[in-house]
User: What shape does this take?
Amino acid sequence: MKDGYELVYKRPDTLLSKRMHYCPGCFHSTMHKIIMEVVDEMGIAEETIGVSPVGCSVFAYDYMDIDFQQAAHGRACAVATGIKRSLPDKFVFTYQGDGDLAAIGTAETIHSCNRGENFTIFFINNAIYGMTGGQMAPTTLEGQKTSTSPYGRDVKHVGHPLRMAEMVSQLPGVAYCERLVLNTPANVRKAKKSIKKAFDIQKQGLGMTFLEVVSNCPSGWKCSPVQSLDFVGENMLKYYPLGVKKDVTANSN
Amino acid sequence: MAAKGFVEISVEGCKGCGLCVHHCPVKCLSLKMDDTNSFGLHYAYLSNEETCIGCANCAVICPDAAITVYRKSKAV
Ligand code: SF4
Ligand code: SF4
Assistant: This one.
């Protein structure tokens, strides 16, 4: 380091040095990074257990230096329920994409939220199936072209995109629900605060904490990483509005 | 040494996504268009060392945590 300068930002220790397999500019990497920053800042690496899904983030356990379990497709919330019930003092989270959480795993998601299980769900919504080659997801926007909706999503035929944060926020078991985005440095900093808040609420045992992240997929959307920021801002956020959908601690602090 | 800050970018850790270049408020980062890392990607580098303010916006947005940021110490 040069004389007269101090360190203001470095890679979090709990994010392993292994190169992540995600495409350039993918918010999955950003989300992995900031979850590990929060884990480092809270000093809870030894007490945190993640559950990874099937999808692009199936290998999440390769990058985070914490305990992990990989779940069968869509079953992350069921696995996390078992882990949290048997180890209630640990911080437990699932990390799931739109295919895992909102298609094959919808039942597990809704019922674990409804039961008010005390873990945190990180739901990464990029409106497409990245890993399998860019097919339509439950969250694909109306008119959005994918390899299985080449003329754009036709809502008369396949229904409307699912707004998961709004749906689960209706359930009594959910203590905290917010939709975030990682498209600017300010929004990344804000997302970190929300992750920390979710872990704090989990520690108090108040119920399910659900964070939906509006994400990107430059490869599946067939654009550059910088162009994907425009699609997020101009299209995704119009249908998936940001903000706190529910917060049972809102009046107490 | 007038610059308020400086950054170190891992050549091999960078994926050349350009998000740091896009979000740097003083536009002092660029992608190295005449060179690549071992993955064949044009990596980011500090192209204007004089203007970096050490705000860490680049490091915060970098998905792959490839950037380390330093800022001029206040107490001199
Ligand atoms: S620290 Fe701020 S000014 Fe310096 S390169 Fe990064 S974004 Fe630009
Ligand atoms: S944001 Fe990170 S990965 Fe992307 S170009 Fe900049 S340093 Fe490289």
